[in-house]
Amino acid sequence: MPKRLDINKILIIGSGPIKIGQACEFDYSGTQACKALREEGYEIILVNSNPATIMTDPNIAHKTYIEALDLDMLVKIIEKEKPDALLPTLGGQTALNLAMELEDVGVLKEHGIEMLGASIESINKAESRKVFRQVVADCGLKTPWSRKASTWEEAVEIKEELGLPCLIRASFTLGGRGSGIAYTEEEFEAIAKEGIAASMVSEISIEQLLEGWKEFELEMMADHKGNCIVVCGVENIDPLGVHTGDSVTVAPILTLSNRQYQEMRNAAIKLMRAVGVSTGGANIQFAVNPKDGDLIVIEMNPRVSRSSALASKATGYPIAKFAAKLAVGYSLDELQNDITHKTACFEPSLDYCVIKFPKFNFEKFEDKDVLGTSMKAIGEVMAIGRTFKEAFNKGLQSLELDETTAVSKDELTSLLKTPNSKRFVYILEAFKMGMSIEEIHNLTQITPWFLYQFKELVLFDFDKKINNLDLLKAKQLGFSDNYIANQYEDTAIDSLFVQNLRKEQGVLPTYKLVDTCAGEFEAYTPYYYSCYEEEDEIQDDANPKVMILGSGANRIGQGIEFDYSCVQAASTLKKMGYTCIMVNSNPETVSTDFDVSDRLYFEPLTVEHILNIYEKEQPIGILVQFGGQTPFNLIQDLIANGVNILGSSPESIELAENRSKFSHLLNDLSIQSPEHWLLESATNLTTSITDIKYPILIRPSFVIGGSSMTVVYNQKELINFIAEKQPSFPLQLDSFLENAVEIDVDLISDGKEATIIGISEQIQTAGIHSGDSACAWPSYSISPTLLEEIETTSKQIALQLDIVGLLNLQIAIKDNTIYIIEANPRSSRTIPFLCKAQSINWVDIATRVMLGTSLKALAVETPSASHYAIKEVIFPFSKFPNCPIELNAQMKSTGEVMGQDKDLGLAYFKAKKATNLNIPLSGKVYFNNCSYELVEKFLALGFSKTEDINEADLLISLGIGKVTTEHYELRKNAWDNQKLILMDERECALCLRAIESHKASPLNVHAIQYAF
Fold this sequence. Notes:
Blueprint: E1 9-13, H1 25-39, E2 43-47, E3 63-65, H2 71-81, E4 85-87, H3 92-104, H4 107-110, E5 114-115, H5 120-127, H6 129-138, E6 146-149, H7 152-162, E7 166-170, E8 180-182, H8 185-198, E9 204-207, E10 214-222, E11 228-236, E12 249-251, H9 258-275, E13 280-288, E14 295-301, H10 306-315, H11 319-327, E15 353-359, E16 379-385, H12 388-398, H13 409-417, H14 423-432, H15 437-444, H16 448-458, H17 471-476, H18 481-486, H19 495-505, E17 510-513, E18 527-531, E19 545-549, H20 560-575, E20 579-584, E21 599-602, H21 607-617, E22 621-623, H22 629-632, H23 635-640, H24 650-657, H25 659-668, E23 676-679, H26 685-688, E24 696-699, E25 710-712, H27 715-725, E26 731-735, E27 741-750, E28 754-765, E29 775-777, H28 784-800, E30 804-814, E31 817-824, H29 831-838, H30 842-850, H31 855-858, E32 868-874, E33 895-901, H32 904-914, E34 924-928, H33 932-940, E35 944-945, E36 954-957, H34 965-976, E37 980-982, H35 985-1000
Parallel strand pairs: 1-2, 1-4, 2-3, 4-5, 18-21, 19-20, 19-22, 20-21, 34-35, 34-36, 36-37
Antiparallel strand pairs: 6-9, 7-8, 7-9, 10-11, 10-13, 11-12, 12-15, 13-14, 15-16, 17-18, 23-26, 24-25, 24-26, 27-28, 27-30, 28-29, 29-32, 30-31, 32-33
Helix pairs in contact: 1-10, 1-11, 5-6, 7-8, 13-14, 14-16, 15-16, 20-30, 24-25, 32-35
């Protein structure tokens, strides 16, 4: 049947801030769905708290509410907008849980709102462990032995019956939160209690542990006519026990027989119909016993999932787009596949192999590098190759890791036995040391077929003379030029040598189309991957071309905010008449959607792969300012190979990024910066660093997210840091300005004049990484005189650096003196936030400037503010229980939310609310090292003091400067119990203001297009 005409206005709930277990894959899915439904003429109302995403741009929905994703705010929006229907299946677990809450309190019934995509009944059937277990049994299928528990006493009874070890899963959670494997009584108690607390229905499932079983996922689509298809089968290379988000996965499924696959497919279709998924997508996870082929159903997500984005990019089949259209009445046979222009009612087939590698940031958290059922990956990369081996090698290159590792055989045994983030690198190392497939299988339980593939990579014959090497075979196996060069002791053989040798021998990459159907039909979408075969499928055009380098895997310090900039730049290039070429390796993001750029290359962001594409496409240049630090780290090698960098010149970038050179520039301009010292090497430390005045901030060059940055308070700490971290030299040491106010300045320059985009004031004092601090636009406590000086100085620096495009400056203010801390000549973390706060597309303007348009011609002016916008951050500490909760110069947050209001206090209140750490309006306060005046103000608002930290609703720890062990514990207890913790006088003052404002005026909601 055609689309439904009885509904007009549809409310879509987004997934909120980026967090472990629910990241930008839902931004991708939600964006695709909004666009699809707008195409059909529906009015789209979007609610999402995340300012960093494309999804919350004004042109994605008709009205966008960047508000807290909680029941209170949703009810206000529903009362204001009166939607006809709600689509909750594209915003991850957050949206699904909120839809359930709205149903439970009667809001949907009261306002006559229909649930699209999934019924309450189908959600309950799939999400409740107990109900789902019965549904599976009714289908004649098996689940692991399990029992549900809602209390600690019930959990103990089940544990006595099942015994240990066992697997614990929490109902209605995301990313495996509240789940884990318990081997001991202590582990059982900790995981079970956490799971009951984490579940929105206080329910856990205690299951038999299927150690060593193989794990598979099927991405499904179904419609109201009964059509049901498998879009993609995904195989986890790690055995059961590692969360699917943390596992290296491969598509298509490689180690099942056709009989086993058909059995799994039939089971999935039966489950889809039994659960009642009939208007969209779902994800079903299975386990197979490698010994006898026994099939077990693990769980089902009745919504677009994390794997849906991967499956969409792996196959070219737009799952979220079709799921949205199915939800409003279409059937699969009525939809047309964008790539082949054939019916969407078919099962894609792949004549290539896709690998997904997760990206971890364990180094940020001082926690054990151990993987289990609770997800810890920050992001992921995807690689496409003609064979498993080629895709695997390309995936490793996309991770931006060192290709070598040095461990002993004894260490390897432990590292192989316990799942960890570098397990597959260690497997390769084990084969190099002579370990057998049987030995490695016994330690890892990884299917022997995969181990054979790894062994063949290790045993590949790199002939002693490189001229005798079968270069074509080496490249078909996915080995990089750099890896090949490292196999030879001759120092003259480097990646450039191998590159030139390849060209001499005619060993050049060809590019294949991702076509969803193994070449059966013509593909119309230019979506490419490289391989080393004869036929090239690139479809050329005559337009001038511009390349954009994406940011690769999400990681702490470089996340979705850079993908936002890449997508906006691509849109502008297309409007300007350029052919836009996107290069990226991240399957979660909007930038790798099939219709964002004119030509998409899903390739590792390495010099080799970028040069190959550059030489094939011959663009007029490359834009590197939008993809974060990853493209910046490639600039020198790219220009050495003749690449034209658009925008700021490589010399300007080097001058800004190199700490020493930038310090000299500031000195020449008589611009104040913190006192600094340059450490040339690690030798003679005790004699060469005697004149340093502590505390100091160690600040390496060319890093993002504060990587390797730290504050040290004495010479011993400095020596220990250098010994442990082994940083690159020369190393700049800056005097650390304690209790300073930190400012972010974003501006745009065309080389002749500069315009201030925004001056954002950080709420926490300097010393906490700007990505971990809340910030406010416009500045609320800096005097007009100082703001004018900041503007003048910032423009002076931009013009002196000869910036063409974007520049971000970080500035500290102490004793009414401004100090320039650092300059980032690229898009920053605050750019999307400012774009949303001001309703101005600064990336569009920057792109045009970088292509030669002047600011004067664009009539660009610094915007004035009519309201306040607050950016607040989300931390993943619950995923790393052994990590001390310390905020310092190294960024640790994974995502951000935004609050807006004419009143500063209410904007801050809304931002805090969006993090699920609500500011209490009354209750008990635990004061630690606070001023008497501050205590009195809180008591005057009706709060009472408590000596018990566990009873406190509000914790105030004025631990300014070096953080003590006591402060670690304060913060840990606060976050673990979802309490609000404030860190210094500035934050406390703003919290007071928020409470006062809220008591004077209740919260209201605003759509960003019509706000204020």
